[in-house]
Amino acid sequence: MKILVIGNGGREHALAWKLLESKRIQQVVCIPGNGGTATLPRCQNLSLRVDDFEGMARFALVHNISLAVVGPEMPLALGITDYLKSKGLMVFGPTKEGAQIEASKSWAKNLMESAGIPTPKFAKFTDATTAIAFVRERGAPIVVKADGLAAGKGVTVANTLAEAIAAVEFLFQNNFHTVIVEEWVTGEEVSVLALTDGVSVRILPPAQDHKRIGEGDTGPNTGGMGAFAPAPLVTPQLMARIEQEILQPTVDALRQRDIDYRGILYAGLMITPQGNPTVLEFNCRFGDPETQAILPLLETPLEDLILACVHKKLSDLPPISWKSGAGACVVAAAQGYPGSYKKGHPISGITQAQEKGTIVFSAGTKLKEQQQVTDGGRVLSVAATGDTLAGAIAQAYAGINSIEFEGMYYRKDIGDRAIKTSSIPNQ
Ligand code: GLY
Question: Based on CB atoms within 10 Å of each CB, which residue in 86, 111, 204, 315 is the most buried?
């Protein structure tokens, strides 16, 4: 079987790497891929834009490729699944209609409201004046969200009224026509990803990522600076509630709207101090960097999971087999990220990190004369598994310590709080 993997991040490198562990997979073609996917055996990069649906369908047809696995949200929101399916491909990822669960916060909020899914109270605005009047009336802290896709820059957790007003003004001045203002809730964030065939769900190990650039969760938001799974905060009892009260009812609500949703439903949850889960957002795809922490734990071939979703046979899939223990990954970023940064610096030490038993997933890299050089803000992530969460994290750090490029930055505290607060680090 030959598979297209759409995207160019660490998540897509992890997907390609995991798929290629199976001898049944003849070839993976990454569109456009990165410097790491270019070096994977039986893997090739194809330099097309992720919205060039016609180009990828033509390539798939000529090369007898039957399945596409879509990484990022943007092509899903633009309808990649609808297009490739119309050309005869199987696609892992929801249709354009289903992708609204991530692409339109107000659509997702309405779906949750009508299906009784717990989510913070919200109001929707189409002009700045009314939104600002509402923010003033409610006061801070308060959350301001862009309604559309914003590449991770659409959410402001405003601690002051001034910040909230600035966020509203920024969004309306930057061509967002609808803004959501949401009640601020406290607690701890977790990412719970479910496979779904549009009817049933199978939950992946719960993960936590670290969104802020600075240690101690300080500084601006990023795409994610590291992750670990399973998150000890999510007990089996809490996981059962998340499945029964959130993920399955959401899939049911999508199906009742005749939406064909086959792929990943990612719930970004807040676990309140009372231990209740509430949905901050849904995503329509695998998380990055959560995927790099979760997939190294997977023992069942990834294509079995994907094909069960695509063929609407998820309930027939035998129990998914996971390594015991934990997985973790630490992201190395370019100096200046998430602001502006330079590209083109040679990366050394990848082989040494691999020799230490870690898996190096490239993200913002490309090959230049057979050498990986930096080509993005989040450059790579180093992942490891271990018998315990502390062991997996220590191993990931042992790997990243071997890697060097000019201006390399990584957080030194990935998973610290989970290790400190958990007496059962490995459930
Ligand atoms: N790690 C956050 C995300 O994938 O959206």
Answer: 204
